[in-house]
Amino acid sequence: MTATPERLRIVAGIDPARNWRLALAWAADEADRRGLALHLVVAVPSSHDTQHVDDTPRRRAQTAAGEDALRTASAWAHGRQPGVRVTTALLDGAPVKVLAGLSRQAAMVVLGSRHLSRTEEFLSAGSLVVPVSAQARCPVVVVGDAEHGTQDPAYLVVGVDGSESSRAALALAFEEADLRRCALRAVAVWQPPVFTLHTGDTLFHAERRLLSETTAGWAEKYPDVRLTHEVLIGSPVEMLAEAGEHALAVVVGRRGRGGYSGMRVGSVVHGLLHRAHCPVITVPVE
């Protein structure tokens, strides 16, 4: 395998207290597909990032657990993908800040989902999924369940609404589908407005036209990717989650320019991170 610049790597966040194997499997396979290095990271909060006055014993325990997890995860990743170069790092700092910082020099950041409800996420000091997805400068992959590799033919789902962020998602989705040699299902969701001066048929056909125009031209760039597109009616979160029920992943664009608040990722992304059972790939415009 040819050498690649350090900035071109897949970063996987490892939580010593959780089962990291599903997310790491996804990250290792993606590194192999793209011919990139895999960088495993454990972040240990400093005393400034915790509510403990004297956390020296706590930090020692966290550091020891982190080192052990990195050794185990590195060996596990190498066993899964022997051709992938694996590096590790135990870093000081709040996990959200550390991973968001690493995203500036990464091709992707991969995280495992703890399947927290919105209330649990708000109350949990260890919640990473939404804030990292909101702040990262590269695509973020959240893996809550295993990929549905038995679906034939295998496919990815990409959400399209004509925005700049959804165009970024579409670009990555085609790239992913080409790497995986799978089909791509482009989905627009039309939610009928309560009050409007236009007829439902007019708005629905406008949505179909927008979807067709947004996806035009990609077939020439990726001739081996079989593309289908459709407009679904209903809640965007529910329809995209349902469309991705048997997909390898759902790819969506991220609204906003970062920030800690979960709403900065956009309501659809925020909802999918809680609702979808397949991996969710969030793509920033950058």
Note poorly predicted spans: 119-126, 258-263
Mean pLDDT over all positions:
84
SS-derived structural category? alpha/beta
Biggest beta sheet attributes: 10 strands, mixed
**Major sheet: arrangement of strands:** 3-2-1-4-5-10-9-6-7-8
Total helical segments = 10
Radius of gyration: 20 Å
Number of strands: 10
H and E string: EHEHEHEHHEEHEHHEHEHE
Helix content estimate: 25-40%
Strand content: 15-25%
Distance between the termini: 28 Å
Q: Which overall shape is indicated by the principal axes computed on the Cα atoms?
A: globular
Question: Mind explaining what this structure looks like?
Answer:
This protein is an alpha/beta fold and 286 residues long. It is 40% helix and 20% strand. It has ten helices and ten strands. Helix 6 (164-180) links the parallel strand 6 and strand 7.
Q: What's the arrangement of secondary structure elements?
A:
Layout: E1 9-13, H1 21-34, E2 37-44, H2 56-80, E3 86-92, H3 95-102, E4 108-112, H4 118-123, H5 129-135, E5 140-143, E6 155-159, H6 164-180, E7 183-190, H7 200-215, H8 218-221, E8 227-233, H9 236-243, E9 250-253, H10 267-275, E10 280-283
Helix pairs in contact: 1-2, 3-5, 9-10
